[in-house]
């Protein structure tokens, strides 16, 4: 775990965001402490603290003095709103660019998506990564 | 106890005609684990020896907890340098060494030492000079961790230790440091292995400081830019390029220094940006082959 090329604290923050989005971490649930992160993943606790600080700034986590870090109420909705905004630029646009290169028509893509949507459950909830 | 900080100001150390350290200045923050990285002969051991008052600098100053460490009983009582040689009584059993340390080091914790010996599978009835190379190094680690000195300096202590022993060492160091915060300096060139333990990094090269910053900031300084060769070249114009590779019409350049609009520019130009690991950054910065003189990160680049 956490062996990507991104800085470690970014990977930790992303992991927590994904867990909040997927519901693995619920509002008001406590996240692992910096010490637990440090011993579990053999990292300096300051690295985990940096990820937490970023998430506190974003309103995903909040700190209870002397107790630890908790998922903020409404964090999931905030993250979903953000991810929805970037979904088209980060996910859809690259698909279109790739399709253009391969000579795939937009109608073909739309047809494919419709077909899948008909088979799948109506609202997939997993993270987008 | 949060540990001793170290201030290094214009420190120069010469051995005869050789300049081991050339007017270096940097700071080691108290209570932090700092990695001292550098190739062989870069001046790591020389610096640690001056900080531990094993030798004096030729000019400039090193202040440990605000004072000159030289013949300074208070500062030396709280400083522990573990070198490759171990600095233990080699011809007395380990148990005897522990007794000796417990008598002389007020912060030494014998129970910690014994549990570490057990974890590293070292027989305490043996003499250090009868141990294998890896076990001798491991005993040095035990001494360094269990002494719990406010300034703990570990100079290439991992040498000869096999991977499981090294990971046991990293775990023990981290756990003990979290329970008893203090200043720890780890010199190593196994950067991939120690990187995650480090909060700060000092990179020495040929007796000079190439970079001194917190590890995350340092890592963020490196950037790879990949895409069509002409777009890559346009993107990296007037930047410090430390490596460049081409494959057909695709190029990848590694640059030092980032700008806030990098992502937007890269996206517009159809380029892909990637992070550079500390190990790669270190190799690029200290690789002198190919006539590429190493230049220190400018304050702007490294902050």
TrEMBL record, chain A:
Q: Which UniProt keywords apply?
A: DNA-binding, Transcription, Transcription regulation
Pfam families in the cross-refs: GntR
Q: Which InterPro entries match?
A: Tscrpt_reg_HTH_GntR, WH-like_DNA-bd_sf, WH_DNA-bd_sf
Q: Which GO terms describe its molecular function?
A: DNA binding; DNA-binding transcription factor activity
The stretch of residues making up the signal peptide is none
Q: Indicate the segments forming the HTH gntR-type domain, all copies.
A: 6-74
Indicate whether Transcription appears among the record's keywords: yes
- Mind telling me which SMART domains this protein's record contains? HTH_GNTR
What's the protein name? GntR family transcriptional regulator
Source species, please? Cellulomonas chitinilytica
TrEMBL record, chain B:
Sorted alphabetically, which keywords does the UniProt record give? ATP-binding, Nucleotide-binding
Native organism is Cellulomonas chitinilytica
SUPFAM superfamilies xrefs:
P-loop containing nucleoside triphosphate hydrolases (SSF52540)
- Residues covered by the ABC transporter domain: 6-231
Gene3D superfamilies linked: P-loop containing nucleotide triphosphate hydrolases
Protein name, as recorded: ABC transporter
Q: Which GO terms describe its molecular function?
A: ATP binding; ATP hydrolysis activity
Pfam families named in the record:
ABC_tran (PF00005)
Name the PANTHER family on file: ABC TRANSPORTER, ATP-BINDING PROTEIN, SKFA PEPTIDE EXPORT ATP-BINDING PROTEIN SKFE
């Amino acid at each position: 775990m956490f062996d990507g090329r991104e800085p470690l604290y970014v990977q930790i923050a992303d992991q927590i965001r994904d867990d909040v989005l997927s519901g693995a971490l619920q509002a008001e649930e406590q996240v692992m402490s910096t010490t637990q992160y440090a011993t579990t993943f053999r990292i300096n606790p300051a690295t985990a603290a940096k990820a937490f600080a970023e998430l506190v700034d974003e309103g995903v986590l909040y700190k209870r003095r002397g107790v630890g870090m908790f998922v903020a109420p409404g964090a999931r909705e905030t993250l979903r709103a953000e991810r929805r905004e970037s979904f088209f630029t980060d996910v859809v646009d690259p698909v279109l660019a790739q399709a253009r290169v391969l000579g795939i028509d937009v109608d073909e893509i739309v047809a494919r998506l419709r077909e899948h949507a008909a088979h799948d459950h109506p609202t997939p909830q997993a993270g987008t990564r | 106890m949060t540990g001793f900080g170290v201030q290094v100001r214009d420190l120069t150390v010469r051995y005869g005609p050789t300049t081991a350290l050339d007017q270096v200045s940097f700071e080691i923050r108290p209570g932090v684990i700092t990695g001292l990285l550098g190739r062989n002969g870069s001046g790591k051991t020389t610096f640690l020896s001056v900080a531990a008052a094993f030798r004096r600098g030729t000019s400039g100053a090193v202040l440990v907890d605000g004072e000159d460490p030289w013949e300074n009983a208070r500062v030396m009582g709280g400083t522990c340098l573990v070198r490759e040689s171990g600095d233990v009584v080699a011809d007395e059993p380990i148990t005897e060494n522990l007794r000796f340390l417990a008598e002389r080091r007020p912060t030494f914790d014998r129970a910690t030492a014994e549990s570490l010996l057990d974890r590293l599978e070292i027989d305490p009835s043996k003499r250090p000079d009868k141990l294998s190379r890896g076990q001798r190094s491991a005993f040095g680690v035990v001494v360094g961790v269990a002494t719990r000195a406010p300034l703990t300096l570990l100079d290439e202590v991992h040498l000869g230790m096999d991977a499981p022993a090294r990971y046991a060492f990293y775990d023990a160091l981290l756990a003990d440091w979290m329970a008893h915060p203090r200043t720890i300096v780890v010199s190593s060139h196994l950067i991939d292995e120690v990187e995650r333990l480090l909060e700060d990094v000092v990179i020495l090269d040929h007796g000079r400081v190439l970079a001194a910053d917190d590890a995350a900031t340092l890592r963020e300084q490196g950037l790879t830019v990949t895409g069509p060769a002409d777009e890559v070249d346009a993107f990296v114009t007037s930047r410090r390029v430390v490596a460049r590779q081409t494959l057909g019409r695709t190029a990848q350049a590694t640059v030092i220094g980032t700008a806030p609009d990098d992502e937007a520019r890269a996206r517009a130009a159809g380029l892909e940006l990637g992070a550079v690991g500390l190990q790669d950054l270190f190799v690029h910065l200290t690789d002198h082959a190919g006539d590429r003189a190493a230049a220190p990160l400018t304050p702007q680049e490294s902050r």
